[in-house]
Design brief:
5 strands; alpha/beta; 5-stranded parallel sheet; binds shikimate-3-phosphate; globular; 8 helices; 47% helix
């Protein structure tokens, strides 16, 4: 029987990145946590995990459906349990839902179990990015144009005290995985 070829797509972790542990990406909806997280994980040779996707797989429904059926309070409760009970490997890049750091002791928990990076962007930039994909997000449905920017600005003001507890605050404009890797190694 032929031996399976080992895929060379994922880079082996290089020595300097060996012990970065769990890297939690936090920030508002539309800040690019999933896209950047995937790139960073592949750069570091770490596993990528998205807590929203893990939640949906576990519940067998989308977050939108879960909100509609059980409401936001139940969602926040379970979201926190998913964060804390998920089996993590030693090293991983983890994208989190935009509201997650702002409930219970979730941000403290992430800071105690790994490193947190806040991907910071202005409300207008977030609104432009979210304009076309906001229908999947229960909090943004029915909001358009100026009303969407206004809503994001208010929510962001409410959330930033939590986001600002992150170990690293990164300017999200043109942020690359390479830059995040630099910031992580600088902070070590
Ligand atoms: C939410 C953000 C979403 C998802 C849910 C609630 C929020 O995740 O968890 O719709 O409160 O900001 P993304 O930030 O990945 O869109």
């Amino acid at each position: 029987m032929m031996k399976k070829e080992i895929s060379s797509k994922k880079r082996a972790p290089d020595a300097k990145n060996k012990g970065l542990g769990l890297i939690f990406l936090i920030g508002f909806m539309g800040s690019g946590k999933t896209t950047l997280g995937r790139k960073l994980a592949s750069r570091l040779g770490y596993m990528f995990m998205d807590l929203d996707h893990i939640f949906e797989a576990q519940e067998g429904m989308t977050i939108g459906e879960y909100f509609a059926k059980y409401g936001e309070d139940a969602f926040r409760q379970l979201e926190s349990e998913v964060l804390k009970n998920n089996p993590y490997p030693e090293n991983a890049v983890i994208a989190t839902g935009g509201g997650l750091p702002c409930f219970f002791d979730n941000i403290e928990w992430m800071n105690a179990h790994g490193k947190t990076i806040y991907i910071k962007l202005a409300p207008k930039t977030l609104a432009d990015r979210l304009q076309n994909e906001k229908d999947e997000r229960p909090l943004l449905r029915e909001r358009h144009g100026e009303a969407l920017v206004q809503f994001i600005a208010e929510k962001l003001e409410e959330r930033e005290p939590y986001y600002n507890k992150a170990n690293i605050i990164a300017n999200g404009l043109s942020l690359t995985a390479e830059r995040v890797e630099e910031l992580l190694n600088f902070k070590k």
